[in-house]
Amino acid sequence: MNFFINGDTVILNKGNGIFVNSNRLHFGYSEDMKDCTFIVIVIHPELLSNRASLAIQYWDNKFGSNKDDYVLLTDQMVWQQEVLIAIKNLYDEMHSASKQNPLRLLSQATALCAIMGDHLSEKAEQYNRDQIWTNIWKMTAFIHQNYEFKITLDDIATAGAVCRSRCFQFFKEYVGQTPNSYLTRYRIQKSRELLTETKRSISEIAIACGFQSASYFTLTFRKETGLTPQAYRKQLLQNSTQV
After folding, report:
1. CA contacts within 13 A on the Cβ side of 146
2. Distance between CA atoms of residues 96 and 113, nearest Å
3. Distance CA 129, CA 194 (A)
4. pLDDT at residue 128 above 60?
5. Nearest to 35 by CA among 243, 176, 226, 242
6. How far apart are CA 215 and CA 207, in angstroms?
7. Which of 4, 10, 32 minimizes the C-alpha distance to 173?
8. Are the C-beta atoms of residues 187 and 146 closer than 8 Å to each other?
9. How far is CA 1 from its chain centroid?
10. Residue 57, pLDDT score
11. pTM over 0.85
């Protein structure tokens, strides 16, 4: 899969992983329109919010905006192997069939952060882009919260407190796509979730995801995925019966 982080795109192969630092815009996608299975763990800084001030200072220092945005994890380096194993163990603990042990979860999460903190470097480029990314975060958050409604470029720009041209510029330069493309792809992502997880009709899903009609939804879905929504749902059903 391809993975986008704050303007960079990396390729993750089978068995690889990626650490994404705090407050970075990121998402995964597939250029060849093929699905894959992957696990995700989110560790929130509030885990340390009631801890000693030294821990908070460590978090702010190691995971701030002046540190690496991400680290690609492979099995070629020992410490990265350890991180990949730790991610799998933490994921298994989170989804354990027996009762979870919150203390073990907390210790595994903090240990994982400690390993990554030891291997994050300061960015080579020292200029500050915090305000730009704050604007982008506001605009993408607006899309995520309002994708089911009609959204214009003006609406997106207003959410980020920028003009239309600056909105377009920020998305192209830092997100790698236009605001409308980002909106459309997010809608398609949400529609795929509904096609997978519900039995709602194509028309209902189209309206729920902000498309004006089922026909336009089908046309856009096929353009983005290579399949119609009906064919995509049928393929999911066939794959589930073969497992």
Report:
1. 14
2. 21
3. 36
4. no
5. 226
6. 11
7. 4
8. no
9. 12
10. 76
11. no
Q: How far, in whole angstroms, is CA 9 from its chain's centroid? A: 13
Q: Residue 204 and residue 194: Cα distance in Å, rounded?
A: 10
pLDDT in tens, 180-234: 999 999 999 999 999 999 999 999 999 999 999 999 999 999 999 999 999 999 9
- The DSSP line for the chain is -EEEETTEEEEPPTT-EEEE-TT--EEEE-TT------------GGGGTTS-HHHHHHHHHHSSTTB-SEEEE-TTSHHHHHHHHHHHHHHHHHT-SS---HHHHHHHHHHHHHHHHHT--B-S-----HHHHHHHHHHHHHHHHHTTS---HHHHHHHTT--HHHHHHHIIIIISS-HHHHHHHHHHHHHHHHHHH----HHHHHHHTT-S-HHHHHHHHHHHHSS-HHHHHHHHHHHHHH-
**Tokens standing for 60?**
């702010």
Q: Tokens in use for 143?
A: 């899309």
State how far the Cα of 195 lies from the Cα of 192, in Å rounded to an integer.
5
Beta pairing partners, 5:
8, 26
Q: Name the pLDDT band for 127 (thresholds 50, 70, 90).
A: very low
